[in-house]
Amino acid sequence: MKIDELYQEIILDHYKAKHHSGLRKPYDAEVYHVNPVCGDEVRLRIFLDGDLVGDVSYESAGCSISQASTSVMTDLVIGRTTSEGLALYEEFLAVMQGRGEMVPDEERLEDAVAFAGVARFPARVKCALLGWSAFRDAASRAISGESRKPEVEVQ
Amino acid sequence: MSVSGGPEYAATIDLDEVGTSAEPIPFDVEHIRADFPILERRSGDWPLIYLDSANTSQKPRVVVEAIEDHYLNHNANVARAMHTLGAEATGAFESARARLAKFICARRSEEVVFTKNASEALNLCAYTLGTRLRPGDEIVISVMEHHSNLVPWQLLAERTGATLRWFDVTDEGRLDLDGAFASGLVNERTKIISVAYVSNVLGTVNPISQLAGIAHAAGAVLVVDASQAVPQLPVDVAALGADLLAFTGHKMLGPTGIGVLWGRYDLLAELPPFLGGGEMIEVVRMSGSTFAPPPHRFEAGTPPIAQAVGLGVAAEYLRELGMEQVAAHEQEITDYALQGLATVPRLRILGPTEIRDRGGAVAFTMAAANGSAIHPHDVGQLLDARGIAVRGGHHCARPLHERFGIQSSTRASFYLYTTKVEIDTLVDALNYTRDFFR
Fold first, then answer.
1. Which of B113, B282, B343, B404 is deepest in the core (most CB within 10 A)?
2. B375 contacts A39? CB cut-off 8 A
3. The pairing of beta strand B244-248 with beta strand B221-225
4. What mean pLDDT comes out for the span B335-364?
5. What is the three-class DSSP state of A10?
6. Domain membership flag for residue B49
């Protein structure tokens, strides 16, 4: 597999200019996730506006794959219902765990299809999932009302 | 070169009879590389360039063959089987211990304890030395420690109420002895000092003999994590002044699954058991047990026998090459790499940029032409696409990265089979990486 298939232009574009970056208020839950292997980290907040994901804001540090994936995730989930956002998480997860053999649905995953190649690099799958996992965790905390607890360190 | 790994071993071993003190063989990298079949393979379309030896080294054919020969022709459990195979396996295991003892210039074989790895050896130190600690006692480590020489001491401090303190490093990446002296880091409350001989990130070679003096003046025990030192430096434990010294087999051409704890015999003899089980006992009654003398006191259960045999052959391979020559090659390649990396724009080397007291691991960060950092994962991925294996991340030394205000780094590390051409290729590939992320 060629390196360009991993580092698609879409990924590099998101990496250079991350969408929705920065921590904002209001928010219903805040989580802190790290990848213990490499130290990549994301602090992520979610604000629920009724059934909708009103906002996802974050501060993060890490490789191009983890940063771009988080950026793409925010584009996808903000403005959708929380359950749709979580369904997208499941779809993205399935693609990542598909060893490169699963063809993603471009209609639904949009820019996130660019990460399909990541699935062929097992060491990088965790990178692509970092922001998504934080989103899922924050969403479930917000829904269950665990809400604005200070950070939960997952180290 | 050839090292014999045959079965003819005596049960008790006189260190003077282990190996021969032949003239050193001229150091020829191409000749050495021929002993490592893996170095002939390709990675994708590219020849493999393995620059991750500080993580684990590659294995010469003789080591793999010795393990194979043991399993195929001499396999039995040690120290309990009364039959011929049992005697052969026991002889091979104890002979490997003697080879290791000889390799690090131990006074006697019984000072070498086989463990699972260096982490277990350091945990053994923390556990057994910890039985002497009281609240208020102090343990001193350094901020450059690998997690394996950090977490066991944190756990020990939590268990005993002792306080964990540490040496800082200078901005150049040297142990900050002046700062430690000014702050009274080591004092009459210090009971244990445990530091790395060679940093796995900075490459810094720490002044162990000086630290031994400092420790002993305070009445403390000096533990040394020599995981990065024993593979690349001549180590003479009798002269060094340390009390306990841990290292691992797989970084010095040996197999995984085996490590070594060397200890001064009189200290080992004072320490209580670590893990309980078979082999480490003298007499077991339901009312209580007495324990074997060192080294077996610390080797509960069936030990890594084939691994010990392989490691013994690895030590013999290095000894025949001559550790002075291995160290000189490491210095030459590392110096060449430091100069080559300095030509890559916006690349920052962590740790000493000159070769004095420096080992063969070079960690660095780099940025694209526009100034934005290129993450080590991305560097590693681009290098891998060109067949070059390096490590990216915090290298199990997160506090050290924090000390330098960074999250992670890329590390290239070298060994006796590394060539200057490989370093040139690394430098080219780093420039390619910069252009890719421009």
1. B113
2. no
3. parallel
4. 96
5. helix
6. no
Angle at the Cα of B118 (from B117 to B121), degrees rounded to 5? 95
* Cα B121–Cα B223–Cα B203 angle in degrees, nearest 5: 90
**A53-85 burial, b for 16+ CB within 10 Å, e for fewer?**
bebbbbebbbbbbbbbbbbbbbebbbeeebebb
B395 vs B200: CA distance, rounded Å: 8
Instruction: Say yes or no: B431 and B284 in one domain.
Output: no
Average pLDDT, chain B: 94
* pLDDT digits 0-9 by tens, B401-434: 999 999 899 999 999 999 999 999 999 999 999 9
Asked if B408's CB is within 8 angstroms of A38's CB, the reply is: yes
CA distance B167 to chain A (A): 23
ipTM, two decimals:
0.82
Q: Which amino acid is at B387?
A: G
Q: Kindly determine whether residue A38 and residue B378, on different chains, have CB atoms separated by under 8 Å.
A: no
CATH number at residue B309: 3.40.640.10
From B350, B396, B412, B429, the catalytic residue: B396
Query: Which amino acid is it at B373?
Result: A
Chain B positions in Cβ-Cβ contact with residue A62 (cut-off 8 Å): 375, 377, 407
A155 band by pLDDT with thresholds 50, 70 and 90: very low
**Residue of chain A whose Cα is closest to the Cα of B379:** A63
Distance from the A130 Cα atom to the nearest Cα atom in chain B, whole angstroms = 14
CB of A32 less than 8 A from some CB of B: no
Say yes or no to pLDDT of A58 above 90. Answer: yes
Specify whether B125 is located in the same domain as B240. yes
Q: Can B396 be counted among the known catalytic residues?
A: yes
Q: Do A121 and B381 touch (CB under 8 A)?
A: yes
- The answer to whether the CB atoms of A3 and B381 lie below 8 A apart is yes
Verify that B228 and B284 share a domain, yes or no. yes
Domain count, chain A: 1
Structure tokens at A16: 């250079």
B18 pLDDT band, cuts 50/70/90, is low
The beta-carbon neighbor of A127 closest among B377, B398, B407 is B377
Residues B370 and B301 in one domain: no
The pLDDT-based confidence of B21 (bands split at 50, 70, 90) is: low
pLDDT at residue A146, rounded to an integer: 67
Q: Does A127 touch chain B if contact means CB atoms closer than 8 Å?
A: yes
Q: What is the DSSP string of B190-247?
A: EEEEEEESB-TTT-BBP-HHHHHHHHHHTTPEEEEE-TTTTTTS---HHHH--SEEEE
Rounded distance between C-alpha atoms, residue B328 and residue B366, angstroms: 28
Q: Specify whether B109 is located in the same domain as B254.
A: yes
B54 within a domain of the structure (yes/no) = no
User: What's the domain range around B144?
Assistant: 84-319
Signed CA dihedral, B112, B116, B121, B123: sign only: negative
